[in-house]
Amino acid sequence: MQTRSVETRAKIVQAAQELFSKTGYESASVSEICEQAGISKGAFYHHFPSKQSVFLELLSDWLKGIDLGLEALRSNPPEAEQSLVRMADILPEVIHAAEGRLPIFLEFWLHSARDKELWNTAIAPYQRYREYFRMVVEEMDPEGAIDPAKKETAALAVISLAIGLLLQGVVQPDAADWGAAGRESIRMLLEGMTRRSS
Amino acid sequence: MQTRSVETRAKIVQAAQELFSKTGYESASVSEICEQAGISKGAFYHHFPSKQSVFLELLSDWLKGIDLGLEALRSNPPEAEQSLVRMADILPEVIHAAEGRLPIFLEFWLHSARDKELWNTAIAPYQRYREYFRMVVEEMDPEGAIDPAKKETAALAVISLAIGLLLQGVVQPDAADWGAAGRESIRMLLEGMTRRSS
């Protein structure tokens, strides 16, 4: 793409994010996005087939950021448990990056519950994280001493904790130290997982 | 209120719930609610000042149900830990009751993040639960042997777990045994909380 085309695309994504988080995904129209971005409708449809496709790009950018954060943790893991606990350290960053995006993601999640095609898009990333956490928990138990059902539960619990903390953190960023809360919660959970089975 | 008036009110609430969960809170209009309920706009405004007030009634009904469930658990508690773990038993029921309501609640939560007045309505119940769980965790530690910060974290973690499990359970009711997942997660968490401090 030419520089100008790249700039236009970035303008659209930026304008859409601002509008979605201000008035909601449902309420924002393509016309408003164009107005906010200072471009024509023709230019919009040159880059995106629909409002939904802009949303998916926003979502995918955000998930890429989370993936990179998790990858960085795993590339230099002192220990599997440490990498899970340190995962909580990226929570404030994820909350910060999610500002204006997580509400949109949730709105989209809700729409997805009513629309199977959207659902596949919204649910795929979540399946990936569940797999990821199951793997990390597995690494904590090289001798296979822990009941597999317990490890499965722990993986699901880590995701549930993360979702719950994110949801609260995004709407009340100052109500708690979300990174510390995540770190300490995950630590308690893993402690409980290993201790109960020894 | 006269019987007919009570019936009309119930019809409005029922119609609103169906519409909100089908098309979303934002998209549903008072006209559509009236049409669905088979009543006039005059009758609607006789009972409710706005669409938002119907939503708040739905929300309050649902929260009352959760309160009753928690109250029942506490009225006959074998032990504080048991009551927290058994709390997970009401999770499937809450998920079931939330069907069609939790998505609306979340949508409302998102709108609240953009509107301070709504926010106070949406946030108050959550503060109540945080207080409730802090109290239950406190009962588990009559001798005050556990670091208060740890108990605070545990209370927040239980809520976060519940929110995360609910959110997943509502959109994927069959993807896991959510009650069992909640029970086992809370157990791990509490085990971690008490063991680490002994």
How do the strands and helices of this protein lay out in sequence?
The structure is a homodimer of 198-residue chains.
Chain A lengths: L2 H21 L6 H8 L3 H7 L3 H25 L4 H8 L3 H8 L3 H11 L3 H24 L8 H24 L6 H20 L1
Helix pairs in contact in A: 1-2, 1-4, 4-5, 5-8, 5-10, 6-9, 7-8, 8-9, 9-10
Task: Summarize this entry quickly.
Chain A has helices at 3-23, 30-37, 41-47, 51-75, 80-87, 91-98, 102-112, 116-139, 148-171, 178-197.
Structure description:
By secondary structure, chain A is an all-alpha fold. The first copy, chain A, has two domains: 48 residues, Arc Repressor Mutant, subunit A, CATH 1.10.10; 147 residues, Tetracycline Repressor, domain 2, CATH 1.10.357.10. Helices cover 79% and strands 0% of the residues of chain A. Chain A is built from ten helices and no strands. In chain A, helix 6 crosses helix 9 and helix 8 crosses helix 9. The first copy, chain A, is elongated. The mean pLDDT of chain A is 80.
